[in-house]
Amino acid sequence: MLNGNIVLIGFMGSGKSSVGSCLSKILNMKYISTDDIIEEREKMKIRKIFKEKGEKYFREKEKEVISEVSNFDGCVIATGGGIVLNWDNVENLRKNGTLFFLKTKGNVIYERIKGDKQRPLLSVDDPISAIRRILKARLPLYKEAADWTIDTSSLSISEVADRVIKKIKGGKK
Ligand code: S3P
User: Fold this and answer.
1) Distance between CA 97 and CA 95 in Å, rounded?
2) Distances (CA, A) of 70 to 29, 35, 66, 93
3) In the chain, how many H helices and how many E strands?
4) Quick one: CA dihedral 23, 28, 29, 32, positive or negative?
5) Longest dimension (CA), the chain
6) How far apart are CA 78 and CA 142, in angstroms?
7) Whether the CB of 80 sits within 6 Å of ligand 1
8) What is the model's pLDDT at position 22?
9) Is the CB of 74 under 6 A from ligand 1?
């Protein structure tokens, strides 16, 4: 078990949840997903929260949850893809966490998420354009927020987990 949290950031479909649960098993750390906490609290799927309460409401709940989990220790935290839109989230997570940006190419993201109706921002007529547009806007934010960036496009879940472990054991940047 390591001190501090391992925090996974990145675009939808970049593997934050899969890599996060893999890491938690290998490192014997607790796995936390901020999206799951929001859904449990709201008793509603994220898609429905967006539809019925709006994105602004979701972002407020997300900020509350990030602020709470940032005080935890020894957890692997998978975050929602939009946390970098509010820099308070990044600053909170940094207090006790090492942030890993799981960088993934747009076409790989599309292949991974196509047919998945759970992501409101990509449930649009032209998801490829939406991915490109949102990715372009967020890429600098993910890079700026991250302690480490791992290009996951051609890696398996366990390969990404191995890289995270190597970096974390080598010390904070
Ligand atoms: C979002 C990503 C989603 C979820 C919500 C908004 C985003 O999480 O938080 O749909 O703005 O990128 P994942 O990154 O886990 O899909």
Assistant:
1) 6
2) 15, 14, 6, 5
3) 8, 5
4) positive
5) 45
6) 14
7) yes
8) 98
9) no
Rounded Cα–Cα distance for residues 77 and 69 (Å): 8
End-to-end Cα distance, the chain = 19
Determine if the pTM surpasses 0.90: yes
Task: Please give the Cα distance from 7 to 74 (Å, whole number).
Answer: 10
Amino acid, single-letter form, for residue 153? S
Q: Is 82 in the pocket of ligand 1 (CB under 6 A)?
A: yes
Q: Find out whether the beta carbon of 12 lies less than 6 Å from any atom of ligand 1.
A: yes
The residues near 57 (Cβ < 8 Å, ≥ 6 apart) are 49
What confidence score (pLDDT) does residue 154 get? 93
**In this structure, how many other beta carbons lie within 10 angstroms of the beta carbon of residue 24?**
19
Task: Report the C-alpha gap between 120 and 74 in whole angstroms.
Answer: 31
Q: Sheet containing 75-78: which strands, arranged edge to edge?
A: 30-33, 75-78, 5-9, 97-103, 148-151
Distance CA(44)–CA(41), nearest Å, equals: 8
pLDDT tens per residue, range 4-62: 999 999 999 999 999 999 999 999 999 999 999 999 999 999 999 999 999 999 999 99
Instruction: Answer yes or no: is the C-beta of 121 below 6 A from any ligand 1 atom.
Output: yes
Which residue's alpha carbon is at the smallest distance from atom 9 of ligand 1?
80
